[in-house]
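A reminder from the course coordinator: this example appears on the midterm review sheet, so study it carefully.

Given structure:
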């Protein structure tokens, strides 16, 4: 398909129409969390509400925080906890900070026992399923936090300082907000400007040019792409906006809404076949199906592959292996052809690093107050400097010199304008997105063990089964 002209690609889509978008081992492992309940007798007494303490935090109560120990590390959270202790000196020495990569394994027993932490960074491969947590009434509504004054400007509510879409992402059914996404992630195709320059190439804005660049790299002994085959749900970071670009944002809306035959849309077929072409032409780094996210990122920073689907946390996560002259950058997906419904630059960007306050937490006001502090300009700038990522605070980078990857992400957002998509599968249906679509189909297709048609058929069945499963709470775009 690499040499197929624009009209040929579009005709292929029309013909196919006639035949016709974020980890968890299992949702069932989490359902027991419902037994945790909400015993108000376990909660600390509220403090006195004031201008300096708008959430009525108990100024001497302990605070229990669990952070996902991933690409962002945990120092940013510890620094915010230090600010919390400064604001409430009687809590100094009473803040318990824990970090783990095994969020579900560590926290499920605590939910079951009714003793969850006060604040959780629910992220990573063992991320707890949000749909289940919301459906089982396990989370605190964060509306009081959002309606509290900002730490920087008391005349503004916290909600009015956030980037567009962040509040809505935390809503599942109605007005309550269950999740606060702290980071603001730009997803897409990541590359090294330096390594493209070595090939006398620029980022390809069309798929035909993408294939030409990959072929040029192959002749030099360099792979076009790599990806974390052990965690193939990274593929949608560039694949989903590619689908939306080809078929329009409504294609992702239908997929999120679990509509019948949503995955059979011709734009999905075209996108899958384009990605499969990378495998067929030998443009995927050998061994990629067996790589973790760290191993694939390391191969990429070592120059063994040009492109990798990822999120903006990668700059910090791959920092130790990234050469000084790498010039890390991100781009939106290439255009399939001139018939795409959305322009080049269409990208996936949304809140990331989801924080929750359990309903059974002993000190939920303290958990929300720590989040309020984190959403201040001081903590935001500290986060940006430490981990090369934006936060959900709208701004917070003034006066900072941004590293190459983050500067590129900002530029990509600016270029996208209103053409930003935000697929919800990864937070509405975690098991479907990660295990079934990612591991069960996309991973198989990219390894050459399944054709695009087979992958689409399998994914559609996974989606249909989820839609029919009464045990899974359903969500839809408004």
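Designed residues:
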């Amino acid at each position: 398909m690499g040499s197929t002209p624009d009209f040929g690609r579009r005709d292929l889509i029309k013909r196919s129409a006639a035949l016709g978008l974020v980890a968890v081992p299992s949702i069932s492992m989490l359902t027991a969390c419902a037994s945790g309940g909400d015993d108000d007798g376990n909660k600390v007494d509220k403090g006195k509400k004031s201008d300096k303490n708008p959430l009525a935090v108990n100024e001497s109560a302990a605070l229990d925080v669990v952070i996902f120990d991933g690409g962002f590390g945990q120092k940013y959270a510890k620094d915010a906890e230090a600010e919390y202790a400064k604001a409430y000196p009687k809590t100094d020495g009473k803040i318990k900070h824990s970090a783990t990569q095994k969020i579900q394994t560590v926290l499920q027993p605590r939910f079951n026992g009714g003793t969850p932490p006060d604040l959780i960074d629910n992220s990573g491969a063992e991320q707890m399923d949000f749909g289940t947590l919301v459906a089982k009434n396990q989370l605190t509504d964060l509306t009081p936090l959002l309606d509290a004054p900002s730490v920087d400007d008391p005349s503004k509510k916290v909600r009015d300082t956030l980037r567009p879409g962040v509040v809505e992402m935390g809503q599942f059914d109605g007005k309550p907000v269950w999740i606060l996404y702290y980071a603001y992630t730009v997803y897409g195709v990541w590359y090294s400007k330096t390594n493209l320059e070595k090939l006398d190439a620029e980022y390809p804005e069309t798929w035909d040019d993408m294939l030409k660049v990959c072929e040029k790299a192959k002749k030099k002994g360099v792979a076009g792409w790599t990806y974390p085959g052990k965690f193939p749900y990274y593929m949608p970071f560039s694949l989903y906006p590619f689908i939306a670009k080809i078929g329009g944002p409504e294609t992702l809306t239908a997929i999120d809404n679990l509509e019948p035959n949503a995955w059979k849309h011709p734009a999905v077929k075209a996108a899958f076949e384009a990605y499969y072409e990378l495998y067929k032409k030998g443009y995927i780094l050998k061994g990629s199906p067996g790589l973790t996210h760290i191993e694939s990122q390391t191969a990429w920073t070592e120059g063994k592959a040009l492109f990798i689907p990822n999120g903006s946390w990668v700059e910090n996560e791959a920092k130790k292996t990234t050469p000084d002259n790498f010039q890390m950058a991100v781009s939106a997906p290439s255009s399939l052809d001139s018939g795409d419904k959305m322009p080049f630059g269409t990208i996936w960007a949304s809140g990331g690093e989801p924080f929750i306050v359990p309903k059974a937490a002993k000190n939920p006001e303290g958990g929300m107050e720590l989040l309020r502090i984190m959403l201040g300009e001081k903590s935001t700038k500290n986060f940006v400097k430490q981990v090369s990522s934006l936060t959900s605070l709208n701004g917070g980078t003034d006066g900072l010199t941004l590293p190459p990857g983050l500067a590129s992400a900002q530029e990509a957002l600016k270029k996208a304008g209103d053409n930003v998509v935000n697929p919800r599968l990864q937070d509405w249906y975690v098991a479907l997105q990660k295990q079934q679509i990612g591991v069960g189909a996309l991973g198989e297709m990219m390894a050459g063990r399944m054709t695009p048609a087979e992958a689409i058929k399998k994914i559609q069945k996974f989606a249909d089964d989820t839609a029919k499963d009464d045990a899974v709470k359903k969500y839809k775009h408004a």
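Confidence is low (pLDDT under 50) at residues 1-39. The CA atoms of residues 225 and 307 lie 5 Å apart.
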